[in-house]
Fold this sequence. Notes:
Among the domains are: 41-107, Beta Barrel (Thrombin, subunit H); 126-195, Thrombin, subunit H, CATH 2.40.10.10. It has 1 helix and 16 strands. It has one helix at residues 197-204, and strands spanning 3-13, 32-33, 35-36, 43-46, 50-56, 59-62, 76-78, 86-95, 103-107, 127-132, 140-149, 152-157, 160-161, 170-173, 176-184, 188-192. The strands form 3 sheets. The chain has a 7-stranded antiparallel sheet with strand order 1-8-9-6-5-4-7, covered by helices on one side. Strands 10-11-12-16-15-14 form a 6-stranded antiparallel barrel. Strands 2-13 form a two-stranded antiparallel ribbon.
Amino acid sequence: MRAKRVGGILSVTTLGFIAAGMVVAPQASGIVDGREADSTPGAVRVAFGCSGSVISPTWVLTAKHCVDEGMTYAEVAVGNVNTDHAEVVKSMSIHLNDRADLALLELERPVNVTFAQLGDKVNVGDTEQVFGWGYGNKLKVADMRVVTVDHGIAAEYINGRTEGGDSGGPVFVDGKQVGVHYARGHYSYHVNLQVHRQWIKEISGV
């Protein structure tokens, strides 16, 4: 199992659900242009200044650089409505492969939302949708075109571009999550989930 499991108490806020050169920069304005999201399930905000996705009642998928082994506090917010209700993340699992910027956060109790469905088909030329919160309270989405597929996915901008705060955000093709956003530059760069589905299944069962 290529992961390091870290115990700890992480505060998690569950909010009203909305039906949905490289630079790694978690604190910035978020997706530029694009549009406000209104239909894709599973996208969440991960403090501080990152995004992620709920893939099952008790598991959140995000980027590894969004979390820290020593952290004792984080927020995972579903939707964009403020609430004082808090959940707890009881552990996190970090992928040990340097080429896999992935982390899984395990919730102490289930959340009742629609989950991001994982997919494994992405090809050069596909149009993808990248979701991110930026460093605010509005979930946005940008359309991009896939230009390379390997261990990672690179995509060129169509109607918007990613910025800091979008790291960890889900990347969808044909309604299924195929990637996790981790960096931007001339292109937008994502982890290719097809390569790491076995790791995700070993940890989360998804």
